[in-house]
Amino acid sequence: MAQQLRAIRTRGAILNAAAEVFAQHGYHGASIAQILEKAQVTRGALYFHFASKEQLVQGIFAEQVTEQGYPPRTYKLQELVDEAMALACRLPQEIMLRAGAKLAMEPQLQELTDGGPWEAWALRFASMVLAAKEHGEVYPHVAPEELGRFLVSSWVGAQIVSEVTSGWQDLEERISSIFAYTLPSVAMPAIFAQLDFGPDRGTRVLAEMRAEDAAALVAEPAS
């Protein structure tokens, strides 16, 4: 068990180091030597977990779309909004997300990673729109896959502009605006009136999750 935990920690250290190096230098500017120095592991340890730079990229992309345990909501559309807004809040703070965003812009990596994280996010959003449609939250004409791709394309465009113009300081506001102009043509009026997509929505969702985690720790019986 101790050996397994050590291997998990080593893998995490390598992946985080790779994310820092890729975020700073890009794929072609990054070297295995830089990653080894940042991670403070041996070359053998790195290659035990990742056989190449390509596998490191795949590992980083795999971390982009993960189950974060977002709170369930009355409306599936609100769950979609919460994930998108929380992602906008997290990206400037989390090196793994920043590295993924940078690497995803390198066209030569698309074949390697089967479309990168954007395709995975499009599929996730599409599944959430489909669930919303099954619950009668959206208009009958809404096509989940098309809307999923549209939302991701809009999110990525906003992310790029926000990084260049403000270092992501206005990213949450930009994503909020996307929903403000998109949701009225998607959501049934009675549902739209109850959706919360304010610029600080992601911040509030993440604070709620941290509070729930803290409460769960307090409630755990002492061993």
From TrEMBL:
<protein>
    <submittedName>
        <fullName>ScbR family autoregulator-binding transcription factor</fullName>
    </submittedName>
</protein>
<keyword id="KW-0238">DNA-binding</keyword>
<dbReference type="InterPro" id="IPR001647">
    <property type="entry name" value="HTH_TetR"/>
</dbReference>
<dbReference type="InterPro" id="IPR047923">
    <property type="entry name" value="ArpA-like"/>
</dbReference>
<dbReference type="InterPro" id="IPR050109">
    <property type="entry name" value="HTH-type_TetR-like_transc_reg"/>
</dbReference>
<dbReference type="InterPro" id="IPR036271">
    <property type="entry name" value="Tet_transcr_reg_TetR-rel_C_sf"/>
</dbReference>
<dbReference type="Pfam" id="PF00440">
    <property type="entry name" value="TetR_N"/>
</dbReference>
<feature type="DNA-binding region" description="H-T-H motif">
    <location>
        <begin position="31"/>
        <end position="50"/>
    </location>
</feature>
<feature type="domain" description="HTH tetR-type">
    <location>
        <begin position="8"/>
        <end position="68"/>
    </location>
</feature>
<keyword id="KW-0804">Transcription</keyword>
<keyword id="KW-0805">Transcription regulation</keyword>
<dbReference type="InterPro" id="IPR009057">
    <property type="entry name" value="Homeodomain-like_sf"/>
</dbReference>
<dbReference type="InterPro" id="IPR023772">
    <property type="entry name" value="DNA-bd_HTH_TetR-type_CS"/>
</dbReference>
